[in-house]
From TrEMBL:
Sequence similarity: Belongs to the FAH family.
Every Fumarylacetoacetase-like C-terminal domain range: 181-368
GO MF terms, alphabetically ordered: hydrolase activity; metal ion binding
Keyword Protein transport carried by entry: no
Keyword Metal-binding set for record: yes
Segment forming the signal sequence: none
Classification via InterPro entries: FAH, Fumarylacetoacetase-like_C, Fumarylacetoacetase_C_sf
PANTHER family, alphabetized: 2-DEHYDRO-3-DEOXY-D-ARABINONATE DEHYDRATASE (PTHR42796:SF7), FUMARYLACETOACETATE HYDROLASE DOMAIN-CONTAINING PROTEIN 2A-RELATED (PTHR42796)
Keyword annotations of the record: Hydrolase, Metal-binding
Name of this protein: Fumarylacetoacetate hydrolase
Amino acid sequence: MTGGTAVTATDPSALLPDDTSTALLVGRVWDPESGGPRPVRVAGEEVFDLFDAAPTVSELLETTGQEQIRATGGSARWRLSDLVGASLSRDSERAHLLAPIDLQVVKACGVTFADSMVERVIEERCAGDPARAAELRERVGQTLPAEIATVQPGSTAASALKKVLVEEGLWSQYLEVGLGPDPEVFTKAPVLSSVGYGAQVGIPEFSTWNNPEPELVLVVDSQGRARGATLGNDVNLRDVEGRSALLLGMAKDNNASSAVGPLIRLFDDSFTMDTVRQERIMLRVEGADDGYVLEGENSVGRLSRSFEQLISATYGTHHQYPDGFALYTGTLFAPVQDRDTPGMGFTHKHGDRVSIRSTHLGTLINDVAPTSSLPRWQFGIRALVNYIHGHGQRR
């Protein structure tokens, strides 16, 4: 798709939610002065250092109440416009924004929308070959029954539909997690590996068919309580997963394949889970050299499973997360428009700018680059522990 109105901007106010005056926003900043990450609260242009209250965002959400978060920080330490400028220019010598999560495990749900479920079936049937996708898309669309888009997963009607599809030889592992009682939940990225606002996202050189996945990300504490929400880009290699679902790790977990941000908006009386159940997440991809523009939308209200169902499939007596987890909730968006060769669909090019925006969560901006060209990921859990110990936070 070409044309339309850009959702990108370098104005720091464009990073923030539309109703920022009432939003309680927390995140992380890389502080060159101390050589490590600092949890922060963002209030308009003012950015407050919360490290003395809690050295990690994970601990902040576990131990610190909202009123304490609002009151903590003293005078502002940074200006948001300075952080945005450094982040977009990727100037590591200046303070800049990081992904707003740290010790949380990064989990993701797949096949949570009927539309994207059908695209996964197409990927599977064409074995990851984009040249066959258009033909199969038409054939699969004509073959699958219309009620597949509206049936409730795990219901009696879904079981009956499954029986029909099995008898007709149309059953797929993607239809199983899309229609069956259990959703797909997988580990998207290692702890501390997600990138934030302004950083580059990576595409490995072995992939030639890939796309962004704009998603709502729930931030959940160690007790399974959703504490807030943010935006995410679940970078996806369609050709790799299409070859085999057993290559999911190769398709989903690569350097800078998880982008989260710009900030976590904490749930409160004016911003609740019900607020984001109907969130519209807008995507815009702008080519660096070819003038190409792709626009799309992820309508969270069309999720086939509730947030509560996705959280309970991730956390419970079967699995705990002592430091909490961030949960990508899936995407409706699956681009089918041709970018270059007719019939080959969309794939990223190096230098693409990906902007993901919603009314209540702000804007996440990242540029696409080969994974081999990205800075090596070096700041992990050991480095974080050493940093905290070296700065007076021995608990």
